[in-house]
Amino acid sequence: MNKNNEMPVNAGCWDKIFPQSNKVECKKVSFKNRYGISLVGDLYFPKNSEDKKLAALAVCGGFGAVKEQASGFYAQTMAERGFVTLAFDPSYTGESGGEPRNVASPDINTEDFSAAVDCLGLQPFVDRERIGVIGICGWGGFALNATAIDTRIKAVVTMVMYDMTRVFSKGYFDANTPEMRLEMKRSLNAIRWTDAETGTPTPGYTMPDTPSDKVPQFLNDYIEFYKTPRGFHERSISNQVWTATTLLSFLNFPILTYANEINVPTLIVAGENAHSRYMSEDAYKCIGTDNKELFIVPNAKHVDFYDNQNGVVPFDKLEDFFKMNLQ
What we know:
The protein is of the alpha/beta class.
């Protein structure tokens, strides 16, 4: 891996959806994954800590979000609590590299987490034996998949996790029939012909700009976060669109196949009223280690965990979990 490039982030160019903390330092870093894609992240660490060896956390999510949104908020908050943290943009999105743009992959995005571990482990003030990960929303599934293969990860937390391979292949609440799945494959592969002929990826469906009574409430919740000043960021996929054929990568690559091999402390956090709760509950059953916990936050919806506007994110619990398990 190449030597990380670093650049301080100051208040004059602060472009996050959350306020800048005066308790931590923030530096923009770039690093490469195994596929040679350059990733860009924000490295947070407590002030006056560079002469110490600290535990570290790689943070990413939600699916389609950028480091200036939920992952950065979590990273800065955990840095205030004594950790070195890295919030990063996944391959093909945000400020990270990769062409074509706005593509997701269960393999490459799992690798992105391990590349973030590389980056953290190269920091002189990080203890390589005390690195954990936090995956938010769709990145919860990638965090578990990375933990199953990367033995350098010593503890993992998921927040209102999605298994994107399950959602894309089976639909929400596993509602897709075999006939629906076959039709989806036919449609996506027809789009492949168009992409091959034009040389340009066909864009997928855009997120609506305004809520509607014609869509599920959880989609309206997403709209009210990503499409309003509360959570909007110009580089987020919610302001753009995934390529239509991104779904193909997820249809037959179930990322939790080896969750039973996870043998490190695992904390699965879900909201009582989150539409994604069933995925957290099912993932918890699959985790191999006995040192695991499913923590349900009362009265909380999925997007409540993106910015803690309603005070539901159990940061004290996250701090205690990582301090206990990254000793």
